[in-house]
Hints:
Layout: H1 2-39, E1 44-48, H2 51-64, E2 76-78, H3 83-92, H4 100-106, E3 112-116, H5 123-135, E4 139-144, E5 156-160, H6 165-188
Parallel strand pairs: 1-2, 1-3, 3-4, 4-5
Helix pairs in contact: 1-6, 2-6, 4-5
Amino acid sequence: MDTILRQSLHDSMAAKQDFYNAHKADLFQLVDWVVASFESGGKLLVCGNGGSAADAQHLAAEFVNRFLIDRRPLPALALTTDSSILTSIGNDFSFDDIFAKQIQALGKSNDVFLGISTSGNSPNVVQAVEAAGNIGMPTAILTGGSGGALAGMADLVLTVPSDKTPHIQETHVWIEHMLCWLVDEKMFGSLQV
């Protein structure tokens, strides 16, 4: 058991370090987009499936409530949470449309879209990127491995260079926390570590 634990810890830390080495500038770009959106009256729209849906909700909660400091609520919306919308679109149209239709209804060009897909191939996230792009909002993707189909679609692709799903997902949570922290830092001043 100790061997498994040590190897997992090593691989998890390596995934974060590899992401940092390859995509630090991309994360800073996403921070700038989110800050500009919030300051112009826009919002962050986030989606994903399964564990990535939970991440979308977690990220939205950190912005709407707080991350490390008490500050005004910031407008972030997880497109994964309204069961009536999700099931009506899934039933009447297709599960592939569940996020795109919400973006068409709620999205504005000064919003930012963030899709989360470990594989980079989730059809409903693919359609969401297309819908967001059609509105003119900046699009970003958190993904893993090679980035999948989404790697060639979004304006900004933050790929965790790992083929191990748990470590991709662990790194996504860290990236999401860093996004919150850095947005707070830029908007509200220096924060203590």
